[in-house]
C-alpha cells in the first residue's frame, strides 16, 4: 500500500473512529490455531439469544489477571518470555500468600466503576490453578495461599451484585503433555482429559457462573481440544452461561484484543489499563479516564462490550493508579450510565468530536471535544422529538435542517467532564446517511445494509 493510500486510510480510520483490522496477536487468533482447513462457519451455541441478553445490556466488565507471575512483576508471559526453567518457577507457588478476600476490593472497585461483570484468570498459561482441583497439586488450596481463590473471588463478585466470569487458559506451560500434545496422540488424550476435568470442576463446584472465557488453544485447535463436546457439557452444567470464542469451537461472542474493532455478531474488546495484563509495577503507561471512556463508548457505538483489566499485586491489592482511573470513570458513569447500559449498535456513528450510543430510539451524542454553542450532525433524515443534556436534564434545541441535525443553545463551556452527553430522542432510531458514511462504508465495508 503506497503512502497516499495509507494516508487516505488513516483519514478514513480517524473519521470512522475505528481501527482497521490490525495484525492479529497470537492471542487474538487463539481460536484459529492449527493448520486444518477452516470448517464451515458455525453459528453460536444453542439458545444464544436468551443467554446473551444480560451480557449485551451489561456493556462494561472488569478483567483480572492474577497468578504466580504477579510476584515477578513483569507480566503474565514472564515464564515464556524469559525462558524460566520450571524448577525455578515452581517455588512461586509456595511464596504466593495473598491476603484473605482480596477480591472484595476488586469487586467493590468494579461496582464503583460502573462495571456489571468480572472475569478472573482461574488458570493462566503458567498452569497454576487458583481453584481447588483434583487434577494437580499445583493449585491454590495445596500451595502457598492454602485457600480456594476462585471461591473467594466468586463470593466477592456476587456480594456486589455483579455477574461472575472465569477465564481458563487451555495452553498450560506446566503440564508435561502440553507441548507434545500436538504430535503425540496419547499425550493429547491425557491433556484433553485434564483440561475437560478442570473445566468441569470450575463449572460444577461453585454454583452459577455467568461467563466462561477460554484463552489460547495453542498448539491444538478446537477439534484437538474437543471443545465443541466440552461446551455442550458446559451448557448442561450451566444452562445460562455465555462462552467466548477462544476454545476453537463456536462461541457466543468474539474477543478483539487491545482494540475496539467491531466484528460480526456479538463481541467484547478486552484491554489493559497500562500495557500489561499481569502486575507490572514498572509500567506506568496508564490510560486516562478519558481514553477509557472513549473506548467504552466506541464499543457501545458499534455494538460491543468492553472488558477492562486490572493486574493486582501478589498480595491482591490493586495498583493505586488503576483505582483512581476506575473511580473517576465510575463518577462519570454515575451521571451518564443510562447512555451506556442496554445500548445497542448505533447507525449514527460519524462526526468529528463525537461518539454515539443508541438506547431505544434515543441517540446519545458523546461530545469528545466541546463544539461551542452548537453542533451539527450530517446525514440525518428525520426530525428529532427533543434533546437534553443527559447529566442535568437541561433542554437543548434540536432541529433538522435539510439532512443536518443541528443542536444549539449549548453552554459555551463543556458542562460535564471528561465528556458531555446530549440525548436526542427520535420517533424511530435514525440511520445516518451522510457523504462521509457513504465513503467509509464503500472503503471499509460494513454499514447497516452489509
Ligand atoms: C492473550 C495473552 C494473555 C492474556 C489474554 C487476554 O491471550 O496470551 O496473556 O491473558 O490475551 O485477552
Description:
The chain has 450 residues and is of the alpha/beta class. The protein folds into two domains: 8-28 and 42-339, TIM Barrel (Alpha-Beta Barrel), CATH 3.20.20.80; 354-444, Immunoglobulin-like (Sandwich). It contains 13 helices and 14 strands. It has helices spanning 3-16, 48-58, 78-81, 86-89, 92-95, 102-113, 149-159, 185-204, 222-225, 227-237, 289-301, 320-336, 435-444; strands at 60-64, 117-123, 163-169, 211-215, 242-243, 267-271, 304-310, 354-359, 362-367, 374-378, 386-389, 395-401, 404-408, 420-425. The strands form two sheets. Strands 5-4-3-2-1-7-6 form a seven-stranded parallel β-sheet, sandwiched between helices. A seven-stranded antiparallel β-sheet has the order 8-9-14-11-12-13-10. α11 links the parallel β6 and β7. The chain starts with a helix and ends in a 6-residue tail after the last helix. The model is unreliable at 1-12 and 14-35 (pLDDT under 50). Alpha-D-glucopyranose binds at residues 27, 30, 65, 76-77, 215-216, 257, 270, 277. Alpha-D-glucopyranose is lined by residues 27, 30, 65, 76-77, 215-216, 257, 270, 277.
Structure described in brief:
The protein is α/β, with parallel strands linked by helices and 450 residues long. 30% of the residues lie in helices and 17% in strands.
Amino acid at each position: 500500500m503506497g503512502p497516499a493510500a495509507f494516508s487516505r486510510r488513516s483519514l478514513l480510520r480517524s473519521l470512522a473512529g475505528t481501527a482497521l483490522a490490525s495484525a492479529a496477536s497470537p492471542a487474538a487468533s487463539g481460536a484459529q490455531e492449527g493448520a486444518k482447513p477452516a470448517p464451515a462457519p458455525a453459528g453460536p451455541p444453542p439458545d444464544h439469544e436468551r443467554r446473551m441478553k444480560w451480557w449485551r445490556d451489561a456493556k462494561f466488565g472488569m478483567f483480572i489477571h492474577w497468578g504466580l507471575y504477579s510476584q515477578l512483576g513483569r507480566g503474565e508471559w514472564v515464564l515464556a518470555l524469559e525462558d524460566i526453567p520450571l524448577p525455578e518457577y515452581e517455588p512461586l507457588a509456595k511464596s504466593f500468600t495473598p491476603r484473605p478476600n482480596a477480591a472484595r476490593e476488586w469487586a467493590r472497585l468494579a461496582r464503583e466503576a460502573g462495571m456489571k461483570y468480572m472475569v478472573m484468570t482461574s488458570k493462566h498459561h503458567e498452569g497454576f490453578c487458583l481453584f481447588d482441583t483434583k487434577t494437580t497439586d499445583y493449585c491454590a488450596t495445596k500451595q502457598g495461599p492454602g485457600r480456594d481463590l476462585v471461591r473467594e473471588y466468586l463470593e466477592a463478585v456476587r456480594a456486589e451484585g455483579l455477574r461472575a466470569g472465569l477465564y481458563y487458559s487451555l495452553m498450560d506451560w506446566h503440564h508435561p503433555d502440553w507441548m507434545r500434545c500436538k504430535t503425540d496422540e496419547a499425550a493429547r488424550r491425557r491433556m484433553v482429559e485434564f483440561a475437560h476435568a478442570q473445566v468441569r470442576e470450575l463449572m460444577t463446584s461453585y454454583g452459577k457462573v455467568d461467563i466462561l472465557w477460554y484463552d489460547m488453544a495453542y498448539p491444538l485447535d478446537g477439534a484437538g481440544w474437543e471443545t465443541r463436546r466440552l461446551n455442550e457439557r458446559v451448557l448442561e452444567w450451566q444452562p445460562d452461561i455465555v462462552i467466548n470464542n477462544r476454545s476453537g469451537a463456536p462461541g457466543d461472542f468474539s474477543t478483539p484484543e487491545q482494540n475496539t474493532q467491531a466484528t460480526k455478531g456479538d463481541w467484547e474488546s478486552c484491554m489493559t489499563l497500562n500495557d500489561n495484563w499481569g502486575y507490572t509495577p514498572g509500567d506506568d503507561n496508564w490510560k486516562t479516564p478519558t481514553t477509557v471512556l472513549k473506548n467504552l463508548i466506541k464499543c457501545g457505538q458499534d455494538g460491543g462490550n468492553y472488558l477492562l483489566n486490572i493486574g493486582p499485586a501478589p498480595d491482591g491489592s490493586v495498583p493505586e493508579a488503576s483505582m483512581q482511573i476506575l473511580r473517576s470513570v465510575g463518577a462519570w458513569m454515575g451521571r451518564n450510565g443510562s447512555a451506556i447500559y442496554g445500548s445497542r449498535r448505533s447507525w449514527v456513528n460519524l462526526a468529528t468530536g463525537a461518539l454515539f450510543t443508541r438506547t431505544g430510539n434515543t441517540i446519545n451524542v458523546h461530545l469528545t471535544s466541546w463544539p461551542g454553542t452548537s453542533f451539527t450532525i450530517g446525514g440525518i433524515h428525520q426530525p428529532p422529538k427533543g434533546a437534553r443534556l443527559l447529566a442535568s436534564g437541561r433542554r437543548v434545541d434540536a432541529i433538522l435542517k435539510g439532512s443536518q441535525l443541528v443542536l444549539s443553545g449549548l453552554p459555551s463551556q463543556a458542562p460535564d467532564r471528561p465528556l458531555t452527553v446530549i440525548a436526542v430522542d427520535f420517533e424511530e432510531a435514525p440511520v445516518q446517511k451522510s457523504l462521509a458514511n457513504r465513503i467509509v462504508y464503500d472503503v471499509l465495508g460494513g454499514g447497516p445494509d452489509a
